[in-house]
Sequence to fold (579 residues):
Amino acid sequence: MAESKTEQIKELSRYLRGTIAETLHSDASHFGEEEIQLLKFHGTYQQDDRDTRGELRKAGLDKAWSFMVRTKIPGGHLAAADYLKLDQIATDLSNQTIRITTRQNFQYHLVLKGGLRECIARITQSGITTVGACGDIVRNVMASPSPLHTPAHGDAQKLADELTQALFPQTRAYAEIWLNGGKLYPPPAAENEPLYGQHYLPRKFKIGVIVPPRNDVDIYTHDIGYVAHAPNGQVEGYTILVGGGFGMTHGKLKTYPVLAKPLFYVAREHAVAAGVAIVTVQRDYGNREDRSRARMKYLIEERGLAWFRQEVEARLPAPTEPPKPLQLTTVADMLGWHEQGDGKLFCGVFVPQGRIQDTGAGRYRSAFREIARQLGCPIRLTPNCNILFCNFRPDQRQTMDQMLKQYGVPSDEGMTEARKTSHACVALPTCGLALAESERVFGPVMDEIDQILRALQLEKEPILIRMAGCPNGCSRPYNADISFVGRAPGKYALFVGGSMTGDRLVGLEKKVVELKDIPAVVKTYLEEFVARREDGEIFSAYWGRTHQPGLRPEPEQFHFELAERSARLAATSQDGPLE
Ligand code: SF4
Fold:
């Protein structure tokens, strides 16, 4: 089998240059297919407004093209001053909103081609990059967001920074295109990618770091997951998990979600080298012919974990040990007020679907801007798309509370536990792969589910509810307690049986649920939970006891025959999930 077209595009791109600069500075309304593939490495996806597609087509007009631009922020950690610069970019160049992603990044939507270069340049000037936020490369390295002042939490962020440095691409194409006014230089003889080579990786590659017991980066969903081992407070080493990933290709039974498995334990001083060794095994052996099977999870499944471990150890000049036992508690964020451990406080704020915007339900953008401006507190973005404001003196707490109230940002105190951990992907109108709504409908759906939870006195129960607009699973629906995955407009598959600890895959419960019926369907599961739960049992434990979900549902569970319309939508959409 020949290498995929994307592999050829990368090879001929002169280290990701292609013809991006020429088209960027031309009158063309949009980029061509080959350029789109390369643009991803630079941190942007070309999209079009799907709400207006039909109307424009009927009128014989071009699509309403725009760009999603994604930052890369290791551990989701940034200063207040950086936040203010990024906020101003949203005002000047995007749709007045900032979306927190599930990888602790920011995304801008509806950036026009004429403002694309300025957008990326200004992000870079603010000290943050977009390089490798998308594309076949190591994406943003995530780390436990809780700003607890323990040596282990400090080390998790440090490791995320070290891995980012070690796995950063070396091409000068980014600087030439976005920062030097598009003045392209031929790649000098010295330019190469010592780690990635001309072909970069076969597919996207995700890394996360956690400090137990919290699993607050959903560690089982990553290509590489680092779990800190700090028996006496200081990190001695990391247990490394490999081969997780939720992305799938619609209708292809050979693609399915997989949870990461423990590989080995390494001492702290070898943690970065172990990550590099794993990346190079995927680089050298990953599938470059069939992109739908190119993630590292399939390589490990095909060759076996023992083979994979042997291959990694052969490239790692350091001893490894068997993985340490893992005991994780929750994937949830620490919302509300908490002590950091250094005399200061942090405040976690729930952001509906991660969208920082001003609406009648809360002026989140105005509030966060003023908090950053007046209180100057550093920020952590969470993998559940929420935001933590850090380093408050105790006497600043009242001011912070007043500011949130002033701008109508709801306190987490009145929220159901399910709402606090709920999340939905972007989907329509910007995601080219969406088969159904997600972000735009999830709030009202959760409002109804909240009422049911309160009526059943389950408002304090941790129940993980997620929604995705297509099977790619950007919102990580396949390890939630209850999830809805779009399969056609207004229609969702219902999955149940993941867990609050993130270590169990769901099973398919219903192939099709109409959007309007979701709350009623959820109610039946919640009523059954109330009737059958044992004392103190949370939903995840109850489901595990009563349904004995397997570790690996059959691939058929994640695929169904597509409705005609969704097949057409899928055929016209772009390659690759968005988060
Ligand atoms: Fe949602 Fe991701 Fe699918 Fe787009 S690709 S609809 S963001 S799950």
In short: The radius of gyration is 23 Å. The CA atoms of residues 367 and 404 lie 6 Å apart. The chain has three domains: 5-185+195-315, 336-414, 424-577. The pocket of iron/sulfur cluster is lined by residues 425-427, 431, 433-434, 438, 468-470, 472-474, 577-579 (CB under 6 Å).
